[in-house]
Amino acid sequence: MSVNTFPVDKVATYPPPIEEAVEAIEALLSEEYTLSRRAVALLLLQHDEEIEGMVRRREGEERFAAIAEHIRKAQEHYREPLSMVILAHRQKQAQAIAQEVVRYPLKTGSGLAEWIGRVCMQPLTGIPILLLVLYYGLYQFVGVFGGGTLVDLLENRLFGEVINPFITHWVKVIIPFAPVQELLIGEYGIFTLGITYAVALILPIVGTFFLMFSILEDSGYFPSLAMLIDRLFKKIGLNGRAVIPMVLGFGCDTMATMVTRILETPRERLIATFLLALAIPCSAQLGVIMALLASHPGALLIWATTLVGVFLFIGWLTAKVLPGTPATFHIEIPPMRMPILSNVLTKTYARMHWYFREVFPLFILASAMIWVGQMTGLFDLALRALTPVVRLMGLPDEAASAFLFGFFRRDYGAAGLYRLQEHGVLDGRQLLVTAVTLTLFLPCIAQFLMMKKERGLKTALAISAIIFPFAITVGTVMSLILQLLGVQL
Amino acid sequence: MSHTPSDDARAQTAHARVVLVGNPNVGKSVLFNRLTGRYVVVSNYPGTTVEVARGQARIGGITCEVIDTPGMYSLSPITEEERVARALLLREQPNVVIHVVDAKNLNRMLSLTLQLLEANLPVILLLNMMDEAERLHLHIDHHALAKRLGIPVIPASLISGRGVEELKNIVSEYLSGRQSRNLPPAD
Question: What is the ipTM of this complex?
């Protein structure tokens, strides 16, 4: 392979006024830079602030002034900024080289994959496809199969009839102290609540969700979805690029908050962070809520409509309140492809592994903390403090515990809710109100920490201070409206 | 990004550094995994490599550090990610820069290659997704491209592993000094 037979840094050349300025600036640069002097000169001509700062610091004010003079003179030849001129010339040469070496087919091969991609992007066909994906992928597979069939098998049969009775029996035999028995096998015990929640409830739900998510991801569906939703997003001050963190948010809001970095302006990053914390349910929560409301399709519909409404309204409001113009949208659209089984399995496994490693200790810790709270009376105190709020929303007092859990993790709270529903404590309306309120809560402590890391403590606190009262208000208003209208769900 | 004497000392004593750059969603993370064998979540949509991944690899008997950068469209950064990627290029003084591109969209990708060459960085161009390009009946003359740019150009399909061995051979040539274009630039 032939390499470096001529100076490669001159592969791209520019019109004489620019080349002359580059040469003059190169001669003025006395220090060594990691980049070639030619590249430094070109970046200076493009008014790159970081490079300007570095050169000014290292070459001194005097030389920098001389350099600035060359830049000014070069600019006199053009009406548009030099950065545009340089960019355009480089791009033209890059395209010319590509033309030389790439032979295109006579007829652009519009394969089946591209056709599917296009169909997914057109609103007329794309929206029905999206609805099908949501219905079969999310509702039927995750909600009915994962949250219904699998959970029933694991929680009621395996844990309820085999494992927990066995453990309960032996704990009672081995450890005769009631408080310790309470810690291990009580109502909120490590085995009967923590491990049962994690393995029998969360595992099948999150597993089916991650499997579906990985299939969609590997097929290349999400970028097409981004194009479809771009227009809608523009109205709320975001561009289609923001679909990526939003879609990831359905997997894990914490991870998605980190991914808001791909957005160009601080304004977009703030809007996206806020919407993620408020209105995007994460996988664990989404799964549990799907399972919870699967037996009340009407409630599920109202839940989804409310969240979409809150998402759009708050997005629109935030965009109004925060000044600035939306950024332009560029995204690579890969063609759709048949998902590869090994990819899907690896991704699903990696996500489940990561999620499980995070929640499993937390669920056990929560059981232990509740136990300490019960022993010291703090737990009851907190429940009593929440009771008026719960009553305001037209819910039975028992729902307070689900809310208390929900403050720590939305999925943990939702899992608590699942229990209440199994025991028949909540009717359809109450279930809906609790589900909506919990979904609007901040997902978990980890997300708060991520918001603090990415946006700063003040913003993180401000977002939380808005979210909790807002969630409870929405729940209360919804409860009142449903009661007034006498809706039965 | 400042260029202090300790940076130079580090450049001489530390492992050789191989830096992966390119647009979002061209397969940098897949290549990272192929080279280091370490698992990071790989996604086939743009913008997910936000944090910088580092890993060790042995290429042609030489231990080196492989650094996966966030996606960048140009050396003039617009997004936070691009800023991170450029800062890495400036700070790490790479022994090899592998520019990973999507072979199907070469005309949109070569502009960054030209910029990397302008900067006199030791670039290898990796044409990824050749399988998809071939399915679209695109014919890419990589020999002509290598000659035109004056750097090694390797056709590859990282998902199936095609081109990885050839890439490793050339990287090891760079690392062992036979193709070294390390600092300071020879001008």
Answer: 0.82
